[in-house]
Design a protein that fits this description.
It contains no helices and 11 strands. By secondary structure, it is mainly β. A hairpin with a 2-residue loop joins strand 9 (92-98) and strand 10 (101-102).
Length: 112
């Protein structure tokens, strides 16, 4: 059973930066492939933000390209999301995902 715990959310002004972390425990998940960050804003469906493979191949939602960077440290079983040039529309709960496992989420609020 894989457990995922997110951290690093908070309140930031537009144009600011935050770095989210997702610490994994249970199982040898980094023998496996894709980890992802998703987000859900109030009244909206959950959407993919970014994903990264075990080899470091990444893909991003168009809305965050060139602003967000996903990375991973396999030795630490941790996935990161560096978010720069934040916008109010980035406000959401951000969730870490591995296959059917989800973290509880971390709130990101961007003020204008």
């Amino acid at each position: 059973q894989v457990q995922l715990v997110e951290s690093g959310g908070g309140l930031v002004q537009a144009g600011g930066s935050l770095r989210l972390s997702c610490a994994a425990s249970g199982g040898s998940i980094f023998m496996f492939n894709i980890m992802g960050w998703y987000r859900q804003a109030p009244g909206k469906p959950r959407e993919l933000v970014a994903r990264i493979s075990i080899r470091g191949i990444t893909n991003y939602a168009d809305s965050v390209k060139d602003r967000f960077t996903i990375s991973r440290d396999n030795a630490k079983k941790t996935v990161y999301l560096q978010m720069n040039s934040l916008k109010p529309e980035d406000t959401a709960v951000y969730y870490c995902n591995y296959e059917s496992s989800w973290g509880r989420g971390t709130q990101v609020t961007v003020s204008s």
